[in-house]
Amino acid sequence: MSDEDSETIPVRPAHRFATERLAQMLGDGLGARLMDVRQMRGGQSNPTFLLLTDRGEYVLRKQPPGALLPSAHAVDREYRVLAALAGTDVPVPRPLLYGADPTVIGTPFYVMERLKGRIFRSPNLPELAPQARRPVYLAMADTLAKLHRVDWAARGLADFGKPGNYFARQIARWTKQWQGSQTRGNPSIDRLAEWLPNHIPTGDQVSLCHGDFRLDNMVFHPTEPRVIGLLDWELSTLGHPLADFAYSCIPYLTAAATHNGLAGLDLWALGIPDQAEFVAAYAERGGTAAPLQPFHLAFSLFRLAVILEGVLARAQAGNASNAEAGTVGARGIALADRAWQLVQ
Length: 344
Known about the structure:
By secondary structure, the chain is α+β, with helices and mostly antiparallel strands. It has helices at 20-30, 75-85, 133-148, 166-181, 187-195, 241-248, 250-253, 256-259, 267-270, 275-284, 294-317, 325-329, 332-342; strands at 8-9, 34-40, 48-53, 56-62, 95-99, 109-113, 207-209, 218-220, 227-230, 237-239. It has two domains: 8-113, 2-Layer Sandwich (Phosphorylase Kinase, domain 1), CATH 3.30.200.20; 130-342, Alpha-Beta Complex (Aminoglycoside 3'-phosphotransferase, Chain: A, domain 2).
């Protein structure tokens, strides 16, 4: 298999690290001898690597090199939430080792189980037959409902975030992130930063939220429409479940050319449930019954736009974790414009 076809590539020059001390940790902690390191293609934020050992494959996630925004790239939080969810019905890879010492490979990192299955990169699921696509979306809705039903206090996560007042705090946080990472103007982000705090819906709920719940952050069983692993927990926190759910609906709001979305496609012909059916499936499986409103969708687009502007900033600084980070980051304007359009 060529590098063009593989899910891994040689480690990018900006992300190379010495492996001697890592090899020692793997030997001491897992009884494994490190044989090779490859970089996973995915991962816009925290670089992700495949570790090849004599005891099988493991996955390593680490902070990126260079100057980082406060609270960003928190691999310690990723490791903690994975450990807390082990043994629940939420499908996650088993966390195996955490390395807090930045001198081992240059930044903090953790090692987890390697899950082998299918990762679907595009919401229109071109690799599947039409009749196989609806079950994938229903499995997504089921997985998110399971996560939102978790008793986070009982799992030792009572201090994993600040319960309540989630949207006000998040809008302030992402506005600050935007101010700290912007490399160009984005007028719709500025407008949303003013509009959103004044239009937060009444009522509040608290659940454990993934923060980046989307199709390509899930590993599906090799042959069944079943999620076996939910990945990339960097943005997880205690928050409002509709923030998570609205984010999972972003493909319905965006076109393929803008953000690899579904807007404008014939979903019935594709065998993909429309947004209304997806919303109903989530509620039927135990997700929150509170109504999804334009505010929630606009907030999720605003937040994603700020994240992508940060990806663009890292690309321009030369320490992005994905080779396509510049292209991905450039979508921030289109997403913010779509959010502003929703609330007009």
